[in-house]
Amino acid sequence: MAKPSVAVPEVGVPAAQASCTCPGTLLAYPPPRGAGVAAAVRRKCLQVELGAGAGLLGGAGAWGVESMRASSPTHARAAAALAAGGGVDVDVDEERAASWMARHPSALGRFERIVAAAEGKRIVMFLDYDGTLSPIVDDPDAAFMSETAFVGLAGEKQMRMAVRSVAKHFPTAIVSGRCRDKVFEFVKLAELYYAGSHGMDIKGPAAAKASSSSRHAAKAKGVVFQPASEFLPMIEEVHERLVQTTRCIPGAKVENNRFCVSVHFRRVDEKMWGELSESVRGVLRGYPKLRLTHGRMVLEVRPSIKWDKGKALEFLLESLGFADCSSVLPVYIGDDRTDEDAFKVLRRRGQDQGVGILVSKHPKETSASYSLQGPAELVDVRR
Ligand SMILES: O=P(O)(O)OC[C@H]1O[C@H](O[C@H]2O[C@H](CO)[C@@H](O)[C@H](O)[C@H]2O)[C@H](O)[C@@H](O)[C@@H]1O
Q: Which pTM was predicted?
């Protein structure tokens, strides 16, 4: 696994490089071995991309309205264009979709291939939450898992059952941008690993019976990892300031995700996006150690440490005893830009050494190998 080093800026923002102070608490049990993340942790130092904040505020249009628009689904834009009488070139769209599907075939259709890749290997499952285990909804506090019940099992939630049954066989982790406690409240399965705040808050299963009886699951049971704990007071402060500064923008919602903050604009009139973006950038001017990324209709403020969902995946594999191991097949399913960091890690592992599955109804630039149309199809994979 690559050592954490200087962070690569996300939108071509030039990053000045500097060592940082210690990353904060790390209590891994047992202490992971080998080079990679564990070694970096022993050094108790990660490097930050100081200067990302400056790039964020400079640079033509960096994180302005255009990039906010880019986080709106293409189909909504196409529908809007059609409604406005502008029209879209349907043939070109279909061609593009077909070529995209050829490059990222449905995981359902290639199920046999995935099973073959898993032959003789231990599967480790990584699942994103929003847009993957739950449908995208307007209110982030109402993003519950699928409500549909199996016939004869009224009351049980279909998606939760699917995840529970997967976790019976394989170590399973939820990797989310949300704060860990909140995502646990939605998922409610104690036997899983949870990596909240985009992987900056990792905890092993609380349940007596870990995800499986394997020695690997037992190994990582006590893992707790918070590489950005020193940023907590800063994030609290920024959260407060963002709440104040966006108060006058109708529909804006600021969510405290513990090691990061989300500023939602799904319910903000597009005419106000510029103002919202300016307000957020204005607050961040005072915090050069924080950076801004984009999710689905959300601006995400987070520490400028080189840590993301991909690093969380690597950390968990290492904690489970699978560092540099070809006898494991990590499978990561996610829908958002932040999941791309994990897809890239899997791509780098090489063919049949990891499976990245993008949940998306529409063609998107991605490093995932396969696709699924939506959360409902995820339940189908299990059957
Ligand atoms: O990594 P994830 O688990 O996918 O979390 C990313 C963000 O997800 C949530 O926001 C998204 O879902 C909301 C509910 O469907 C939707 O209203 C919002 O527009 C989406 O961006 C969550 O609220 C954020 O804090 C996460 O960062």
A: 0.80
